[in-house]
Amino acid sequence: MKKVLFAAFLLVSSNAIFAQVNQGQWLAGGNAGFNSWKRGDSKSTTIFVNPNVGYFFINNLAGGLRLGLESEKVKGDEDATVQYGVAPFVRYYFLPAAQKVNVFADASYGFDKIKQGDAKASGNHFSIMAGPAVFLSPNTALEFALYYSSYGGDRYENVAGDRSNNFGLSIGFQVHLGGGASSAKK
């Protein structure tokens, strides 16, 4: 009986939570990635996780807040560098709602705190990314993105140009929720 009630609940609620990229809907999820570089004998490996929450202010355009957690290990350094921060973001989906695959572009600017051993610093960064969002269901999407990030602040004062620039790939997962314009009409 519990299984029948649960199935009925999912069937009824699926119409109410049907969502993709319409005004009034919510976006929750995040992305993760890996970055590695080598210059001479120096080598660095970075892993990051960025959860986010956003709201569609108009169809196809969402804005929100992204948290960031990043760990970088440089060959020869005793301690890893840990960076955490917060960044407002905007995201645009280029195709109309109800597409199996949609294409998005995302931009953010944020502020960071950086710690390596006992040393602490502050920083800022901006990031752009774009790629396909593959909707596994009407309200969940698996995302693949190419990204460019540029970091500045106290930690990068001795770097040529006072910034560290990165290119990479990330994979993400987003859940699209809420009433929105499409489900309000149903």
Note down, in words, how this protein is organized.
The chain is mostly beta strands. It has helices spanning 2-17, 180-184; strands at residues 26-39, 42-58, 61-74, 81-93, 101-116, 119-137, 140-153, 163-177. Residues 4-18 and 182-186 have low confidence and may be disordered. The two termini are 28 Å apart. It has one domain (2-184): Porin.
Q: How are the elements arranged and paired?
A:
Elements: H1 2-17, E1 26-39, E2 42-58, E3 61-74, E4 81-93, E5 101-116, E6 119-137, E7 140-153, E8 163-177, H2 180-184
The percent range for strand residues is over 45%
Order of helices and strands: HEEEEEEEEH
Supply the CATH class.
Mainly Beta
**3D shape:** elongated
Total number of β-strand segments?
Answer: 8
Low-confidence stretches: 4-18, 182-186
Pfam family, one: OMP_b-brl
Organism: Niastella caeni
InterPro entries: Beta-barrel_OMP, OMP/PagP_B-barrel
Keywords: Signal
What characteristics describe this protein?
2 helices, eight-stranded antiparallel β-barrel, Porin, 66% strand, mainly beta, 186 residues
